[in-house]
Amino acid sequence: MDSTWKPYLKSSEDDWTSITDAAERKRVQNRLSQRARRSKLVNRQRNGLTHCSRQIEGSSGVTDEADSRSLYQPLPTASVDLSVSSSPVSACNFLGPVSPDPAKDNHFIIMPCMTAYAAFMCIAEVLKLACMQDTGFNICAPSNTLPSPIAPTLQQQIVPHGPYVDMLPWSSLRDRILNSPTAINEAEFIQDMGSGDLKVWGSTPWEPMAWEVGPEFARKWWFLMDEGILRTTNFWRSQRGEEALVLAPL
Q1: Predicted confidence (pLDDT) at residue 211 exceeds the cutoff of 60
Q2: How far apart are CA 146 and CA 32, in angstroms?
Q3: 3-class secondary structure, 201
Q4: Does the pLDDT of residue 237 top 60, yes or no?
Q5: Measuring CA to CA, which residue among 151, 127, 130 is closest to residue 141?
Q6: How far is CA 170 from CA 106, 205, 231, in A?
Q7: How many helices (DSSP H) and strands (DSSP E) are in the chain?
Q8: Counting Cβ atoms within 10 Å, is residue 200 exposed (0-12), middle (13-18) or buried (19+)?
């Protein structure tokens, strides 16, 4: 038997070279072909997600494995199993360490905080982003199965764009980027997505209410943000007793 078939053999019954009946031999060959196609599809999807990851990871200055791990340190009991989950809510059940500030209030409620990098990768998984293709339309998941905040807008369906746009949890911000593609430096924006100036509270990263925009990101990209993004950000800042951010041109 050709060595290319061997990785897909599960038992001696799959060795069609010893089968004399033509119809049975054909059935076994078809079974092996189906296994090979499924394996290639899984690898292609895995490689695509890795490519999505590198877009943010590389642009944020991560140069080695140790630095990559520092972006997201999961809890010891956290797990990610997106392959068998049918619900996005349970699919992204992985959080970074909780980060309360005891100096503010001795009776605080502990709120887990996910890094932006982990949140974007979770959104990419839910969307089933095909980051390796160059069509400009990257979402492979059916729109009617997606949480409404990250379901593609009309602009996302008609304007070719990079996968980083699809990872953003704000539909208004996605549309503003697509309506004015020359208004931003894409490489700089992607770098700022993974710079650490974005925080995600809770365990549903596709929910805009979970996101807090930092001062540097707001200062640089104020023209892409709307009042909803600012209101959510200032809600989280107020929980720590911090002053509200104000959107203003540079």
Answers
A1: yes
A2: 33
A3: strand
A4: yes
A5: 127
A6: 33, 11, 13
A7: 10, 3
A8: buried
CA angle 123, 162, 96 (to 5 degrees): 30
Tell whether the model's pLDDT for residue 29 goes beyond 90. no
Locate 194 and state its tokens: 């993974």
Place of tokens 């980083």: 164
Residue in 223, 228, 143 with CA at minimum distance from that of residue 183: 223
Structure token digits, residue 110: 């502990």
Structure pTM? 0.61
Burial 171-199 (b: 16+ CB within 10 A, else e): bbbbbbbbeeeeebeeeebbebbbbebbb
What is the distance between the alpha carbons of residues 7 and 81, in angstroms, rounded to a whole number? 25
Which of 188, 190, 176 is CA-nearest to residue 225?
176
Take residue 60 and report the two structure tokens written for it.
Answer: 């944020």
The token duo for 199 is: 């925080």
Q: With contact defined as beta carbons under 8 Å apart, do 236 and 212 qualify?
A: yes
Beta strands across the sheet bearing 198-201:
113-115, 198-201, 211-213
Which residue, 221, 170, 230, is CA-closest to 191?
221
User: In a 3-state reduction of DSSP, which class is residue 69?
Assistant: helix
Q: Identify which of 172, 116, 179, 181 has the alpha carbon closest to the alpha carbon of residue 149.
A: 172
For residue 144, give both structure tokens: 């009617």
